[in-house]
Amino acid sequence: MVGSKVVVQVPATTANLGSGFDCLGMALALYNTVTVHATTGGLSVRIEGEGAEDLRWGEENRVLRAMRLAFQEAGERLPGLSIELRNEIPLGRGLGSSAAATVGGLVAGNALCGNPLSTDRLLALATQLEGHPDNVAPALLGGLVIAVQDERGLICERLDVPPDLTAALFVPDFPMPTAEARRVLPAQVSRADAVFNMGRVALLVAAIARRRYDLLDAATRDRLHQPYREAIFPAMPRLFDAAREAGALGVFLSGAGSTIIALCREDAQAVADAMAHAAHELDITGKALVAPLADEGARAEITRPSRHRPGKQPADHW
After folding, report:
1. Would you tell me how many other CB atoms lie within 10 Å of the CB of residue 198?
2. Nearest Cα to 122, choosing from 146, 141, 97, 145?
3. Which of 203, 239, 289, 304 could form a disulfide with 169 if both were Cys (CB 3.0 to 4.6 A apart)?
4. Domain boundaries, the chain
């Protein structure tokens, strides 16, 4: 194991997709990269990109915590580690940055141990660490994932995402911590609102599966969480309107926020720019991004030292 190097790419994720509160998640082609060298020394962590000034790099680092759990599950002793994190996923913006760190650490640790843990086990461990599967499942599996839990455990069903859909994003400069975004939600909702969302989440899954893009606007509407989160983000309806007016097929708050995502077939950049322009008129700063949907989840490439001759050996793929 010592001398091995593993590189893991983990996609960003968007949870809820409007109507699918706490049960739908989708992967986006915006990546965090975890590079780990197994050494005989101690621990070092270097962070570049998003969150480099804010993230913890020591024992509480999410990637390291997940790697420790993977080694524990595999029955292996943790070696010295040199960890490099290159982050493209913004923190605290509802794009699954913590899920990406957890999945990246688990997949890296599993690869260094020789991949003894199954995908189902990795998913269970990621859910154990994160608490909710709607971000970790698409980060690990890619695509669109329906994730529910019952007394038997976690149930996930994955769908391929349409290759001709693209996400237009407006990422505000302010975060919306998940705990705060959950505090504004009511303990109970009306039967009418529950039925409203039940129908629309079913419609959303059908729209993606059957490529019925004309249904996405209705399917992404929501009454369970977005209206209440307007108390934290009052400009949300105006940005939704701007996206729709620019041609978005459907628009929603990503996870607990603050990112807003619009699904598009064409002119995704124009839709992202329209949201940014509307935000500017409301004195909200942020950035416009475009990201394809990601059909692949986390992937690891490992290089092991040769026992026979120097030089890089063929990589194993997880």
Report:
1. 12
2. 141
3. 289
4. 5-160+295-317, 166-292
What's the chain's average pLDDT? 92
pLDDT in tens, 258-296: 999 999 998 999 999 999 999 999 999 999 999 999 999
Out of 14-23, 147-156, 238-247, least confident range: 147-156
What's the number of CA atoms in the CB half-sphere (13 Å) around residue 167? 25
Q: Which two tokens stand for residue 135?
A: 């971000």
Report pTM: 0.91
Cα separation of 300 and 317, whole Å? 6
Cis peptide before 97 (omega within 30 of 0): no
Which residues 6+ apart lie within 8 Å of 265 measured at CB? 164, 165, 166, 213, 249
Exposure pattern of 64-92 as b/e (b: 16+ CB <10 Å)? bbbbebbbebbeeebbebbbebbbbbbeb
Give the three-state DSSP class for 316: strand
CATH code for the domain defined by 166-292: 3.30.70.890
* DSSP code, position 274: H
What end-to-end distance do the CA atoms of the chain give, in Å?
16
Task: Report the C-alpha gap between 199 and 220 in whole angstroms.
Answer: 11
pLDDT higher than 90, residue 7: yes
How confident is the model over 117-131, as a mean pLDDT?
Answer: 94
Taking the C-alpha atoms of residue 205 and residue 218, their distance in angstroms, rounded to an integer, is 12
| Residue 259 near residue 243, CB atoms below 8 Å | no
Tell me: the pLDDT tens digits for 24-71?
Answer: 999 999 999 999 999 987 888 888 888 777 665 555 688 999 999 999
Kindly report the backbone phi and psi dihedral angles of residue 114, in degrees, each rounded to the nearest multiple of 5, phi listed first: 95, 20
Crossing angle for the helix pair 268-281 and 236-245, to the nearest 10 degrees: 140
Interacting residues of 152 by C-beta distance below 8 A, sequence separation 6+: none
